[in-house]
Design a protein that fits this description.
- Helix 3 (58-78) runs antiparallel to helix 10 (172-187) and helix 4 (80-87) packs antiparallel against helix 5.
- It contains 11 helices and no strands.
- It is 80% helix and 0% strand.
């Protein structure tokens, strides 16, 4: 089996030389379309809750769905750069911010449903859960890490922080995703197949990023 570095190198080597690319279309409709599509699951979940179709444990079902949506969208946002590195596609970079903000929105909805509906805003019970139950602690820390990322997601904050510091800060998204997977893994009691799939996807994204960084360093040395 070839290493991730060899895979990235092979994809780049196999790509035929391309003529000068035409001017990139900005496609301003793309991020709003992603946000609109990303909110559809919330509307479906609300409709199911209104019609009593969430089952006998409606709160647990809502928590599971909101948490899963947050994790999927966060991993999708992290996949933007690896997709660009491997395929050359640029559109994932244009929707990365929208995906990340949607992930933060669903993570907040997940926590607020837990705190407000499941725990009835009982601060003592919430604090006890966070300090005594590892899976809740992992999820809570992941949410905290997403707060500064959402707050600095604008072009103005990128300019204020500078590209280098902004990039270092936003690497916390990978830490948040790892904690999200840990939260999911500890949450399930029997079949860990689904969280393991997300862990494998995250590991693949890590591998592509590391392979690309190593290739760039080798090229710089030459």
């Amino acid at each position: 089996m070839s290493s991730p570095i060899e895979a990235v190198r092979a994809v780049k080597a196999a790509s035929p030389p391309r003529a000068a690319a035409p001017p990139r279309r900005k496609q301003p409709w793309l991020p709003p379309a992603i946000v609109t599509g990303g909110l559809i699951p919330l509307a479906v979940l609300g409709l199911r809750a209104f019609t009593g179709a969430l089952g006998p444990n409606a709160v647990a079902e809502a928590l599971n769905q909101l948490g899963l949506l947050a994790l999927v969208l966060l991993i999708a946002s992290l996949a933007a750069t690896p997709l660009k590195l491997v395929s050359g596609w640029t559109f994932p970079l244009r929707i990365r911010r929208a995906l990340g903000l949607l992930a933060f929105f669903y993570a907040c909805a997940h926590f607020l449903t837990y705190a407000g509906v499941d725990q009835g805003l009982d601060v003592r019970a919430i604090v006890e859960d966070i300090t005594e139950r590892p899976f809740i602690l992992a999820g809570f820390v992941a949410l905290l890490l997403l707060v500064p990322l959402a707050a600095t997601s604008t072009a103005r904050m990128l300019k204020r922080l500078g590209a280098a510091r902004w990039k270092r800060l936003h690497r916390l998204a990978y830490v948040a995703a790892v904690l999200g997977v840990v939260h999911f893994f500890l949450r399930v009691k029997k079949d860990a197949t689904e969280p393991m799939i997300y862990a494998a996807l995250l590991a693949l994204l890590f591998a592509v990023r590391v392979a690309s960084a190593v290739l760039h360093r080798r090229a710089a040395r030459r």
